Amino acid sequence: MTIHAPDRVREATGLAPLAVDPAYQHCGIGSHLVVQGLDPCRESGYRIIVVLGHPTYYARFGFVPARLHGISLELDVPNDAFMVIELEAGALNGCTGVTRYVAEFMSL
Length: 108
Prior knowledge:
This protein is α/β, with parallel strands linked by helices. It contains 3 helices and 8 strands. It has helices at residues 29-43, 55-59, 103-106; strands spanning 2-4, 9-11, 13-14, 48-52, 64-65, 71-73, 82-86, 97-100. The longest helix has 15 residues, at 29-43.
């Protein structure tokens, strides 16, 4: 993913949507999946991660609405559902603009 600001383009990555069968919810499976998604991103050098999902759920992991940083998504989605987290302190400083998925993702 990229965040297109007026002065430059920043690299980011996105967490894919996740779902847990209702029979297995509230067992920690979803939380485990999120953490297992964040750790490899951090290890791979990503500094910014975005997610499109339930605001209350993802806030537990440190995600905040991207609009608070002046970041929007190229798709029409509820403002609070598009969230961002920085994996390195300061990675979101001055980061504003429109987030775009790579073409391969948009073709799905």
